[in-house]
Amino acid sequence: TARPITLTWAVADASGLSLGGGLATANAPAGASQVRLMLNAARWTAGPKTLSVSVADAGGVLDAASTNVQVLGLRLAAEPGSSRVQAGQPIALIVRAWDENGAAVTGLAGRLTVRVDGGTRAVTFTEGPAGQYRGSLSTTGLALGGHQVSVAATDARGLAAEAWTAFVTSRLAYLPLVLK
Fold first, then answer.
1. d(C-alpha 124, C-alpha 133), whole Å
2. Helix, strand and coil percent figures for the chain, each rounded to 5
3. Is the Cβ–Cβ distance between 126 and 103 less than 8 Å?
4. In terms of Cα–Cα distance, which of 95, 170, 180, 103 is closest to 136?
5. What secondary structure does DSSP assign to 30-64, as a single string?
6. Distance between CA atoms of 78 and 81, rounded to whole angstroms?
7. Do 133 and 109 meet the contact criterion of CB atoms below 8 Å apart?
8. Residues near 14 by Cβ (< 8 Å), separated by ≥ 6?
9. How far is CA 26 from CA 22, 33, 35, 56, in A?
């Protein structure tokens, strides 16, 4: 007959920082040596993690184990070429992409989507060096003031990431100050 068990789990990153934990109850079939534990890793950062699990029944802990797992991931960073641009002038947009091991992710030039203040904007990106993408974002039609930019990508493995940055459009051109 099945018996009730409790699974207690914890996940820590490579530095030992706890990322969370929990417990789940299940009915273990008689003679079972394995129990399935499904975890949602969507909010975990990419990279190595330690998963610790213990199994207990009414009589106490039956078994405990820890294992190393690799969480796959795509990370993006985005930055404007300048924090301020004259209204109507293009602004450079630089995006960097890397994987769970810190290696540059290539081949995303056609897979980057840009939104400014929630609306999609067409930006063509070129890649170079590896994992770094550069595009020119038109500010035509944007109101004066601050603007929030999001850049999203999905890599060849189907992993998705998004990064945010901001810039300001203004009427004034800012010239360098030269002192003699």
1. 10
2. 0, 55, 40
3. no
4. 95
5. TT----------TTSPSEEEEEEEEEEETTEEEEE
6. 10
7. yes
8. 47, 48, 49, 50
9. 13, 13, 8, 11
Query: Taking CA 146 as the corner, what is the angle to CA 88 and CA 149, rounded to the nearest 5 degrees?
Result: 85
Mean per-residue pLDDT, 120-134:
96
According to DSSP, the β-strands at 84-86 and 160-170 are parallel
Instruction: Report angle CA 18, 24, 25 to the nearest 5 degrees.
Output: 155
For residues 22 and 54, the answer to whether their CB atoms sit within 8 Å is no
38-58 pLDDT tens trace = 787 777 777 889 999 999 988
Which tokens go with 131? 């994992």
Distances (CA, A) of 100 to 25, 58, 113: 32, 40, 21
| One-letter amino acid for residue 39 of the chain | L
Which pTM was predicted? Answer: 0.69
List the structure tokens of 56.
């207990």
